[in-house]
Amino acid sequence: MTSSSLNPTVLEPQFAPWQEPNAHRVRAEKSGDPAVVKQGRRASPIEVVNNLRAAVREWREAFYIGASDTTIQLLNHWFNRAHRKITPDGEEFEFRYYFCQREAVETLVYLKEVRRIECLSQIIAEFGGVNAEVQALGITEDEDAWSRYAFKLATGAGKTKVMSLCIVWSYFHALRESHSEMARHFVVIAPNLTVYERLKDDFGNGRVFDEDPLIPPNGAATGIYRWCCKTKPAEPLRVGRSTSPIFASTIPPNVKSKLKRIPTPGWVQ
């Protein structure tokens, strides 16, 4: 029986979680040799992703040019200043959002507010590369029917924090920008009751808004804290001035079965 030992260096991070990835590991050419560290961010197999990352980086380095005053204030507050939080044991520590969380929110803002790109065919045509126009022609009417934005984050990367950032951005944009088309009410849909309960713990009674540095010191947070819990999707949702801004529900079984049958679009291959 042979024994093998784990090389602890393979577990060492190449960069801090709040830094933009600047190195990655690749498999060594010779079997048994340690992985090779390559400088630069690992490229995505999807060309749209690489081009969009580059565009958002350029926009970030240009100090968010073209965004509204509300957006610039929020992004700078979240990502360009130090934050202090306190652990349950009373110890103070420096808090920073992860880069993947930052990039996700910045990409949404860049597409929605700065570039005003509302549908999939526009994204493909703009960031699809050499064959962008041809690829955009392959988008169906159903895929282009609604303005939809989705984030792909690894388990443990903080998807709930991204949700809270997006909610605060939309809420204050609608509140402060006179011509804003953003929403003041939000629907949070959980795939099952386990995730639903976790979301209720984070959003219930404004916990995430109290514990995370989401609201700037001069931002009036009145009204965004309320949380409406609902576990019967068949009941109608009526939104009005007195409605809680954040609304949660689980996915009905019949919708789950339909989601499983949705094929992967050809442009992501």
Structure description:
With 269 residues, the protein is an alpha/beta fold. Strands 5-7-6 form a three-stranded parallel sheet, with helices on one face. Strands 1-2 form a two-stranded antiparallel ribbon. Helix 1 packs across helix 3 and helix 3 packs parallel to helix 7. The longest helix has 18 residues. The C terminus is likely disordered.
**Radius of gyration, in angstroms, nearest whole number:** 21 Å
Please, what is the average pLDDT?
82
Termini distance? Answer: 42 Å
Instruction: Give the tally of β-strands.
Output: 7
Please estimate the helix content. 25-40%
Structural class: alpha/beta
Count, helices: 10
Profile the largest sheet.
3 strands, parallel
Query: Biggest sheet, strands in spatial order?
Result: 5-7-6
Shape: globular
Strand content: 5-15%
**What is the H/E string?**
EEHHEEHHHHHEHHEEH
Outline the low-pLDDT stretches: 254-269
Could you list some keywords that capture this structure?
10 helices, three-stranded parallel beta sheet, two-stranded antiparallel sheet, disordered C terminus, about 270 residues, 7 strands, alpha/beta
Question: How are the secondary structure elements laid out?
Answer:
Blueprint lengths: L22 E4 L9 E4 L7 H15 L7 H11 L3 E4 L5 E4 L3 H16 L5 H8 L4 H6 L3 H4 L14 H18 L9 E5 L2 H11 L3 H5 L15 E3 L16 E5 L2 H8 L9
Parallel strand pairs: 5-7, 6-7
Antiparallel strand pairs: 1-2, 3-4
Helix pairs in contact: 1-3, 3-7
Write a compact overview of the structure shown:
It is built from ten helices and seven strands. By secondary structure, the chain is an alpha/beta fold.
